[in-house]
Amino acid sequence: MTKQFITKEGLKKLKEELIFLKTTKRQEISRRIQDAKELGDLSENAEYSESKEQQALNEGKIAEIEETIKNAQTINNNHKSDVVNIGSTIKIRNGKGERTFTIVGSNEANPSEGKISNETPLASSFLGHKVKDKVEVETPKGKVEYLILNIS
User: What is the pTM of this model?
Assistant: First the structure.
C-alpha cells in the first residue's frame, strides 16, 4: 500500500475509530453471536448468520484502518506557504464564482465539507501553484480555468 496523506486530526479520528471497533463494537457483536447461539440450530439461525457477517465486516474494517495508520504520512495543515500543498485551504474563482477547498488525503475527502482529495483532477491541478496563478483543469465538460485568490 502506498503512503496515505492524512492530517493530525484525521489520524486521531482513525485511531479513535479503531479503538471503538476493537473494543465496544467487537463486544457488541460477540454478545449478539452468543445470544444467537442460545437460540439453537445454527444452520437456520438468521440472527447468527447476520452477526457472523457483521463480525467479518468489523474485522475487515479494523484491518483496513490498521493498514491506513501504518502507511499514514501526517500532513501539516497549519502551515503558511505561498504554494498549494496537501493540507492547504485555497480560495479559487472561475466564471461561476468563488469557492474554498481544503486539499486533504483521499481517506479524509468530504466534498460536502469542502475537503477534496489530493488525488482528484481538481486538487492535483492546484498543487505547486501560487496566489494569482491561473490553473486550467480538465473536467468532463471541458477545460475550466481557475484563479487562485488565497492560500492558507
Answer: 0.69
